[in-house]
Amino acid sequence: MAASPLVYLPDSKLRLVSAPVERVDDEVKALVATMYETMYDAAGIGLAAIQIGVAKRVVTIDLAGKDEAPQPLTLINPEIVKASDERQVYDEGCLSIPDYYEEVERPARVTVRYLDETGAQKEIEADGLLAVCIQHEIDHLNGVLFIDHISRLKRDRVVKKFEKARAVGELPSFPRRDKRDRAAPETVEA
Question: What pTM was estimated for this model as a whole?
Answer without folding.
Answer: 0.90
